[in-house]
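Take a look at the protein record below and tell me what you see:
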Amino acid sequence: MPISEMLLPEFEHEMAGTRKSLERVPEEMFVTVTVTNALGQVIATPVNNVVIAGPHTTSFDASKLADGTYFYTIHAGSFTQTEKMTVTK
């Protein structure tokens, strides 16, 4: 499986926050998901542990964040991906 297909980020904006869905982790590995603000300050680390192979969903409650642009970074094995998310209330 190509590394680019290993994790498929999918965000759904909900009233109480944002749900982050991790899909198709191909093998057991240490996974970290961090949320940062526009200044690069870490706001939250919703995932920071070993994840077994298979589909996974992790919830992140963004209800206490101010409206604005934030970034989430996924580290899984040698794979790293950063994406932008917008919080609006």
Q: What stands out?
A: The chain has no helices and seven strands. Residues 4 and 79 are 8 Å apart (CA to CA).
